[in-house]
Amino acid sequence: MSTYREITNQVADQWVAALKNAEETVTKLSQNAQRFADAMPSIPTPSLPGAEPFAKLNEALTEHLPKPSEIVEANFDFTTRLLSAQRDLTLRLLEVTTPGAKSDAPAEAPVAEAPAAPAAPVKKTAAKKTTPAKKA
């Protein structure tokens, strides 16, 4: 019988293979579209009035915006860090809440606990008196 980790790895392998297949398909489609566009006769495009300010704006913005590859790298780095932190938290919670449970994850320095906040005074309210319903 397969373990949970083996089953999870098999599913992950299938997802990664599907993603690689999709990547190859998109690359081929892009190359074919470029070949098709290159084979088509060029169509003259009219110069639109007022296009110059938009071109200047585009150039100005392009200089200050990150490249798409930088955005992808930064977001995947963030996601990797976030998933790692979530995994560590979940494993730590399992260790704390499950008697005798020990994680397979590498041991890290213990997390310092925040000092307990002083208890807020409890406000007592008078009990509401109710009267029995009258019978008709």
From TrEMBL:
Residues 99-136 are annotated as: Disordered. Keywords: Coiled coil. Residues 125-136 have a biased composition (Basic residues). Residues 12-39 form a coiled coil. Residues 106-124 have a biased composition (Low complexity). It comes from the Bacteria. This is Phasin domain-containing protein.
